[in-house]
Amino acid sequence: MTGANAPTFLCDEMLHGLARWLRAAGYDAVTEEPGTPDAVLVARAGREGRFLLTRDRAMLQRRGASRHVVMLSGQSTDLWAGEMRRRLGLAWWHAPFTRCLICNTPLEMHPSLPERAEVTGCPTCRKVYWPGSHTRRMAERLKAWQAGDCQAATA
Ligand SMILES: [Zn+2]
Questions:
Q1: Distance from the CA of 28 to the center of ligand 1, in angstroms?
Q2: Span from the CA of 60 to the centroid of ligand 1 (angstroms)
Q3: Cα 29 to ligand 1 centroid, rounded to whole Å
C-alpha cells in the first residue's frame, strides 16, 4: 500500500521524532547516526532520491542540495507536520501503521497469530505491534494532521 511513487525521506538528527511519525504514516523514512556530516546526508538523499528534512539552514547551501533538501522552520512536530502538508502535499493518513516505527521495515502479519490480522510484526527487528490506546492516540494525531489541524499542542 505504500506505493512506489510515495515520497521517501532522510531526516537529520534533530528530526528523529519526525522520522518516527513518518513511519507511522507509512512512509519510508530513515535517519543516520548522530554526528553524520551534512555532506554525507546530502549525498545519500540525492543517491536514494529521498527528501532530506533538516532544521539546519546551512544544509541548503551544500552543493547539490537545493532540489531535495527541505528545511523545516517550526518549533514542534505539529508545525513540521503542517509544513510538510503545505509544501510537499504530504498525506498523513497515507498507509498508517504499515512500517516498523523503530527500523522502517514494512510490517507483516504476525506469524504465530494469523487469526489476529491486527497484530503485526517486524521481520527485521522482531518488534510486535498490538493495537491499543497508544496506537489509537497516534492515529488520532495523524488524522488531525491529515485534516490540516497542525496547531494542536504537542502531546
Ligand atoms: Zn523493526
A1: 12
A2: 31
A3: 13
> Which stretch of 8-12, 36-40, 104-108 has the lowest confidence by average pLDDT?
36-40
Q: In one letter, which amino acid is 127?
A: K
* Residues in a beta bridge with 52: 10, 69
Q: What is the DSSP letter of 34?
A: T
Which residues, at least 6 apart from 94, have a Cβ–Cβ distance to it below 8 Å? Answer: 2, 6, 25, 26, 27
Q: What is the pLDDT of residues 48-103, one digit of tens each?
A: 999 999 999 888 887 777 678 999 998 999 999 999 999 999 999 999 999 999 99
Residue 128 CA to ligand 1 center (angstroms) comes to 9
Gap between the Cα atoms of 134 and 138, Å rounded: 6
C-alpha 61 – ligand 1 centre gap (Å): 34
- Measured over the CA atoms of residue 5, residue 138, residue 31 and residue 151, the dihedral's sign is positive
Q: Grid cell 507509512 — which residue? A: 26
Question: Of 6-10, 53-57, 151-155, which has the strongest mean pLDDT?
Answer: 6-10
